[in-house]
Structure formats: structure tokens, C-alpha cells
Write a structure and sequence with these properties.
With 132 residues, the protein is an alpha+beta fold. It has a 4-stranded antiparallel beta sheet. Strand 3 and strand 4 form a beta hairpin. Helix 5 crosses helix 6. It has 6 helices and 4 strands; from the N terminus they run H-H-H-H-H-H-E-E-E-E. It has one domain: Nuclear Transport Factor 2, Chain: A.
């Protein structure tokens, strides 16, 4: 029979191990480099941050959005996200990546509902969104 000390030590080790996996979906996604631009997009739209919004996109996409004007782009995303997600939290989303080392697609799920993936590309060692 195990002593109380051995039992408590075992429980502590198992608890610590389990806590290592107890992260919210958004926290876990933040460890996936390819999901970073999607997370930046979600944060920028939620916070109304044009600079962060711009930083989420590839140079090619920024050039296209520059023509539209970033205030207009932000407003369009805010309206679209409000309709699609309501008053969302990052924890409501999960992400998965399929692709190669330099480009691919980030699959997104919101509260269990799968959404179309978003094209991402690696640009100057950082992942960026590569579509509208």
C-alpha cells in the first residue's frame, strides 16, 4: 500500500501533466505559427486596429487593400465578422494547418462549426494571410 506522501506525489505529477494540456483553443492555436495571421486578423477586427490588420496580410494583399483604404477594409471585416460570429472571443476558435513549409491553408472552426480555410504564405520568416 502506498503511503500518503507517495499518493500525493503521484497525484501532483498527474495533475501537472494534465494542466499542460489544459489550454484554450486560441491559446493552443497561438503555438501554431501558421495560425498567427488569422489570430492577428481576429484581434485587429475585434479591437478596430488598422495597423494590426495590415500586419496580418502578405505584401501582395496589402497592395490590393491599400487601393480600397484600410478604414473601409476594417469596416467590411467588422460587419462580416459581427454577422458571422457575433461578439466573438478568440477562445471560440480552433485552427489547423495543411500545407507545405512556405504556404498552405489554415482551417478554422468557430464553436465547432468548420469554416472555409484561409490561404497563408511565409513572407520574410513570418506567416501572412494571402487572400481576401
Amino acid at each position: 500500500m502506498k503511503s500518503l506522501q507517495q499518493l500525493l506525489t503521484s497525484a501532483l505529477v498527474v495533475g501537472t501533466f494534465l494542466l499542460g494540456f489544459a489550454t484554450s483553443p486560441a491559446e493552443a492555436a497561438e503555438t501554431i505559427p501558421q495560425a498567427q495571421p488569422v489570430i492577428a486578423l481576429l484581434k485587429a477586427v475585434k479591437e478596430g486596429d488598422q495597423k494590426q490588420l495590415q500586419s496580418a496580410f502578405s505584401e501582395k494583399m496589402r497592395a490590393q487593400y491599400d487601393k480600397d483604404g484600410w478604414d473601409k477594409v476594417l469596416k467590411q471585416y467588422q460587419e462580416g465578422f459581427k454577422t458571422a460570429f457575433g461578439d466573438y472571443k478568440l477562445e471560440d476558435f480552433t485552427f489547423d494547418y495543411k500545407g507545405a513549409e512556405e504556404k498552405g491553408a489554415v482551417s478554422i472552426a468557430h464553436k465547432g462549426k468548420t469554416l472555409p480555410g484561409m490561404s497563408v504564405t511565409k513572407e520574410k520568416a513570418e506567416w501572412k494571410l494571402n487572400e481576401r
